[in-house]
Amino acid sequence: MNNELIKKDLKYIWHPYTQMKDCEEAPPIPIERADGVKLYDYDGNFYYDTISSWWCNVHGHNHPTIKKAIKEQLDAFEHVLFAGFTHKPAVELAERLISITPKNITRVFYSDNGSTAVEVAMKMSMQYWQNNGDEKRTSFLSLDRGYHGDTIGAMSVSGVDLFNNRFESLFFKSFKAPSPYCYRCPFEKEKESCSLECLTGMEGILKEHAGDIAGILLEPLLMAAGGMIIYPPEYLKGVRDLSNKYGVHLILDEVAAGFGRTGKMFACEHADVEPDFMCLSKGITSGYLPMGVTVTTEEIFKTFYDDYDKLKTFYHGHTFTGNPVACAAAIASIDLFEKEHTLDRVVEIDAELKDFLKSVQDLPMVGDVRSIGAVGVMELVKDKNTKASFESKKRLGYEIYSRGLKKGLLLRPLGDIVYFFLPLSVKKGELDDIFNRTREILETSSIFL
Ligand SMILES: *Cc1c(COP(=O)(O)O)cnc(C)c1O
Fold it and tell me: What are phi and psi of 48, to 5 degrees?
């Protein structure tokens, strides 16, 4: 380990989502280099990056094609303001995004992170209604356990209490519908025989409040930070139908699910749904540089397009909007999907994950297994019959994280939900190795007593 580096880190840095006191015993691990799905520390130990460095890496670390694109753009210029100026990487990326997103999507608005991509969509949605003379639609409808980011606007529509509760007095008003969490169904139904009762919760809110609601915001098929909840495409289709029926926008937060992670380029394709807005970030540059994008339809764009004195301008923008180096990385990453047949590989990863999950589902602490594309989930429980959770003071997730590191695995459970969120470039041999190491941890029964 590089002890000097750790000492200075602990002296100067405040890490995200980290109780810094934990670092006394378990300091952050300095990474010296990374390649493919492996991170290397200064002693040459490696860690399999099974969660794609917080869900953003797509084609593996240190990919020569993406690095080359970044270097070439740097040699031309690094950044320019994006109001009054434009550049080839932004234009080319917009054209590419329009060609791979659903057919109704025709406009691209750039920003620089996922929370912001979501807030842009909400602001555009609300102003759309105002542009049409409807001033009342100032709320949004989202899901319990949904997650849309850590800024105050994004927190207002998120439903992960542990992260948000203490800031609640700052939030704008929003409506929360029950989430389609099949393992812990709020209507106590079974996935195989239910009739999507969870949609009735959403419809109840719309019946009463549709006139106050600008749009419905949700993560398509994969509710990531709220517990890697995977729900059926029929639910998303149902939400699209409800948004049409009640005349509100459908905003899909594809920040985590987009760019191949679920086996399609975008998760909404599983349900054949065309959203009014789509929010993109994380995987867009394959995780090499920060970038956020909000895409929308010509119908929405047109309501903003008018003489200046009509005051319909969209007053929003960030300093690093449309950064050319990030755009170049994103174009290279989209190219790689074709060149490396990435989505074909995800189909194989999906099957390999399902085999592994089947092999561990009978372990005594594995309550539920679920997967989609390169995301595989094991929800651990103290009692399989009652689905009772482990005591939170046990910090089971943290224990598994620590044991993972000792076995060369970067696992970062969400509470008791252990998951893989794999880079799409992971090879069969690597995957088998990851599975074997994970199995050894799950079979260490002393952790679960
Ligand atoms: C991570 C995430 C965000 C927030 O993105 P940041 O870049 O961390 O601000 C928003 N929505 C979803 C679904 C996410 O997973």
Answer: -70, 125
Least confident piece of the model among 202-216, 317-331, 435-449:
435-449
* Residue tagged active-site, from 49, 112, 144, 253: 253
- For ligand 1, pick from 150, 255, 280 the residue to mutate: most ligand atoms within 8 Å of CB: 255
How far does CA 242 lie from the centroid of its chain?
24
Rounded to whole angstroms, the Cα distance separating 377 from 372 reads 9
Given the CA of residue 151, which atom of ligand 1 is nearest to it? Answer: 9
Q: Which CATH number goes with the domain that contains 391? A: 3.90.1150.10
* Residue 387 scores a pLDDT above 80: yes
Range of 128's domain? 66-339
- Based on the domain organization, do 356 and 326 belong to the same domain? no
Shared domain for 145 and 196, answered yes or no, is yes
pTM of structure = 0.98
Alpha helices, H only, 161-222: 161-164, 198-209
What letter would DSSP give residue 264?
Answer: S
Ligand 1 pocket at CB < 6 A: 113-115, 118, 147-149, 219, 224-225, 253, 255-256, 281
